[in-house]
């Protein structure tokens, strides 16, 4: 079959006789791994009231473990990406599942604050650093510029996990206790994810001629095409891509972290306010899946700009939200936008710089994402503490996204022919 590039290799997303293609099996495996790993972690806040009650720790002390996790994950994701480029996804991805499961199981024996920091900050941090990068890097190599849909499917696992695990954890704690719930989560991560590790496709083969730059086979050309990570880091276009990912995660976590408190400030009932986060998770899943389909019709960059653009009115409307319906509508629109951006960014990085260093590219994006989710809530909290309002923070985020739309214009796709 003729590919869009003009080469004749088979398209990995096309279903083959007798079942799914290796590319789609890899996408499904990554989705389950993200659902089990990141999905459980993004529901960790359900445990906080019980830790406060049993140990008497402060919110700042407990939040410090989450901050340490973000630092560890952010520092390790580029290292994981480089390891993927060198050793392959199949050898790196299992470490993610191993450490995430161990992180939850170790919390069963927790009695001191340092144990919380070790389990959540270090062990889970190591596991989560490898939960996304390896499979996304492989999907970029398998699908190339058509990777937005499979990456969107994988990204949706995070939102689906957030929707499922928050009530699951609540029911488990009510029926048992929080220690046994951590054990259940650790075992559940292994039970769900381990079988799907065998669905991960092997890396595209690179022949000796390809390494020498003289290969003529389409598969070899595909594997060697593109810039090295060092070359990408020297390019201003790569820093634009990192900036887009940072600002998107900055605004995403700013809203997700503060929206419940903001809604309560506006006299929204407690239960209705709590469900805003669930609604955000649902619509981020929809956004991620819509982005993959839309990008096939209008292109990845235009779809990305559309995902960014819809966040601007949502953030501005959020400054005047006063009722539960208003909050649901604006957060749903915002979540559609940021949910669409996340799967498109790795695809665009692969388009602009090729797939030669796909792991390093995605790992760098992961570090940018982590920095955004660290600073977004802090910025909004500082603005609220100094002004008594979240509006300046939301307006600032909207202005930054508006400027990003112009920054994206000079990005050009990597040449098709080598």
Describe how the helices and strands are arranged.
Elements: H1 22-41, H2 48-55, H3 59-87, H4 89-106, H5 113-129, H6 133-143, H7 148-175, H8 178-193, H9 208-212, H10 218-224, H11 229-233, H12 236-265, H13 270-298, H14 300-309, H15 311-318, H16 324-353, H17 358-387, H18 391-407
Helix pairs in contact: 1-6, 1-7, 1-8, 3-4, 3-5, 3-17, 4-5, 4-6, 4-8, 6-17, 7-8, 7-13, 7-16, 12-13, 12-16, 12-17, 12-18, 13-14, 13-16, 14-16, 15-16, 15-18, 16-17, 17-18
How would you describe the overall organization of this protein?
It is a single chain. This protein has 418 residues and is mainly α. The chain has 18 helices and no strands. Helix 1 runs antiparallel to helix 8 (178-193) and helix 14 runs antiparallel to helix 16. 51% of the residues are buried. Mean pLDDT is 83; it is low at 1-11 and 207-224.
Report the major sheet. Answer: none
Number of domains: 2
The CATH topology name of the largest domain reads: Growth Hormone, Chain: A
Assigned CATH class of the largest domain: Mainly Alpha
Multimeric organization: single chain
Number of helices: 18
CATH H-level homologous superfamily name of the largest domain: MFS general substrate transporter like domains
Structural class: mainly alpha
Question: Can you write the helix and strand succession as a string?
Answer: HHHHHHHHHHHHHHHHHH
The number of distinct β-strands equals 0
pLDDT under 50 segments (min length 5)?
1-11, 207-224
Query: Nearest-angstrom radius of gyration?
Result: 21 Å
CATH architecture tag of the largest domain: Up-down Bundle
Strand content: under 5%
| Shape descriptor | globular
Overall pLDDT metric: 83
